[in-house]
Specification:
Number of helices: 5
Distance between the termini: 51 Å
Largest sheet: 5 strands, antiparallel
Mean pLDDT: 82
Number of strands: 5
Strand order of the largest sheet: 1-5-4-3-2
Strand content: 15-25%
Structural class: alpha+beta
Oligomer: single chain
Length: 160
């Protein structure tokens, strides 16, 4: 009989839960301020390529993954902004699960391509800590630069 470590069991449980959540029929919920959602005229493929190229060419970023979800209706991207690592880990090793990564979803809705990314402040909602507040302050301009590169700058006065 094969035994798994508690970490492996947790990872498998999270993977199964995420897969079920992402492939189950969607029950629409309105996005809150933990999400940044932007529209674009680009195709999902063009947008994914632009985000990937940005992360691969910027010294402080890495591109980790691109994969389809929800039967291909969502293109999921994972990019990480490495300078946030020390602030995140300062809040505790358990917080490493929130490493400085952006989880991006690209999808179409009403014939418009949309980009959805978790706002970095989700970290302080899940784990209030002063070092995570610092991480959010540093992350906001970095993620905004990524979005501006991928989508073009937003008109002044609009929130991220």
């Amino acid at each position: 009989m094969k035994t798994y470590s508690p970490f492996t069991g947790l990872a498998l449980s999270v993977a199964v839960a995420a897969t079920l959540a992402l492939t189950a029929p969607a029950i629409a919920a309105e996005p809150d301020d933990h999400f940044i959602i932007r529209d674009t005229e680009q195709s999902r493929e063009e947008l994914a390529r632009t985000v990937r190229e940005f992360a691969e060419n910027e010294e402080d970023w890495i591109f980790l993954a691109e994969f389809g979800l929800a039967g291909g209706d969502i293109t999921a991207l994972k990019v990480c902004y490495l300078p946030l690592g020390p602030d995140i880990l300062d809040a505790g090793m358990h917080v490493g699960a929130m490493m400085p990564c952006g989880h991006i979803g690209l999808y179409e809705e009403d014939d418009v391509t949309k980009l959805s990314i978790l706002h970095p402040k989700f970290m302080t909602t899940l784990q209030p800590h002063p070092s995570l507040e610092r991480a959010v302050e540093r992350a906001e301009p970095a993620f905004e630069a990524l979005l501006d590169h991928a989508l073009g700058p937003r008109p002044q006065g609009n929130a991220p």
